[in-house]
Amino acid sequence: MKFSTVFFSLFTGICFQAAAQELEIKPYIQDVEPNSAIVMWQTSSGEESIVEWGTSPKLGKKASGTAEAINFDAVQVHTVKIEGLERFTEYYYRVRTGKIRSDIFQFKTPPFSDDGEDFKLVAMSDMQYDSNEPDKFNEVVNAGVIGYLEKEFGGSLPDNLAMVLIPGDLVQSGSKFYQWKDHFFNPAEKLFAEVPVYPVPGNHERNSVYYFKYFSLPENGTPAYAEHWWYKDYGNTRVIGLDSNDGYRNLGEQYEWLKQLLVETENDDNIDFVFAQLHHPYKSELWIPGEEDFTGKIVKELEQFSTKTGKPSIHFFGHTHGYSRGQSKDHKHLWINVASAGGAIDNWGEFEGRDYDEFTVTQDEYGFVMVSIDGNRTDPKFTIKRISRGNTIDYRENELRDSITVYRKERKPMTPEAISPTGFDVSITGAVLKAGAFKSAHSGTFHAASHWQVSETDSFEKPVFDSWKQCENWYYKENRQKDDDLTDEKMKRLKPNTSYNWRVRYRDQNLNWSDWSTVKTFKTGEK
Fold this sequence. Notes:
There is one protein chain. It contains eight helices and 32 strands. The chain is elongated, with a radius of gyration of 27 Å. It is of the alpha+beta class.
């Protein structure tokens, strides 16, 4: 073959390869409103950004947007906002860049806050790549989330799931470009193409520019810190995204923004529940070094909000690679660790841990959390379900491992009867507080916690004995509350020849406390 022929063939091959376009990241849904939605995708080249859409697979309408080079080469990330949509309606769409055409996908717009519609969301975190379990995130999404929804509900994905929340650590290293495509978007493409995903950054994102280019999050936070904190309403629920990372967790602007947002939420009669997500835990039973005081400040604000308004709240978090569910003692507030969706498990005994009073369940397992929200305007509620994929020792096929339901309205159990001790000459050691059986006017409720107090004064402002016990305390694979019926409690040593007051209250499994019992009085004997 002549040199000219070889050169021509080589040249045309190079040109063909250079001109070939690829859909590197399939379309994914962002920031869906009742009347609009954002679609994003990535191509190897080409700036054309078109979304064809409609209420049937025939599509028929078109929207255009923008493209942005993301890695100092021809690779483009495309963003298109579709407008003029109807609320709580399912739409079909596909994306187009040059000769590239994606498959046709679906998504669903949210209802208005006062529509009273039910919906579900999933929360999971810490899916960063683990070389020992390289396909775990793929498994959690496809066999886990999608498989669970198909088995439990049938129907279309967007009709079953409203949003995906991710409180951080999406990739192993946010500054490494390839990880976003290979380790995060590609394994979850079936889910993200039809259900909007709302993350907050974890420490592994490293405040990378890629994180902020890949997501189009609500821009309703502090303008100078766009997408670091934000909020999103879906039906009767407000989701708040926060940044608990170094450099942002101690910014007064974020804290003040949250306080103001909670004031506004307090006055919004259409919002029944507040779900916050941030990466770091305030307390962690599996891994104490991961704790951050900033999250404690956020928990305190949410607790006070819920008690003042009667609107239950949650903070979802990750960082510790395992599941935990706890609840605040005096408030309708849940603590939910939604890891691990791929990151290496923090196994029991591997790190320093602690048995905290708040947590009833901690499990060193992969999985995700499903939240079903009842939008009924008369008596709204939500239900949390932990769906487990097990761990490297014990495999679980979407096993329900924990569940709790919380109602918007108060459903107090009956006031317990304080029985003993009373009278004089009570032993200073070994005395046991005893109360009557748990009772409730609401069928199906059970005794989930007891709170006992002993005080030298009538006010109980500074009790000498304060004990809060829950019906379960799963720590290190053991229920430390096994066989405790919560109707008695042994006191610590008391002073001799002293008068004391005591009282008790009971809580049901829906986080409702009874009123305090009648105060009983006793007096200790001599030493």
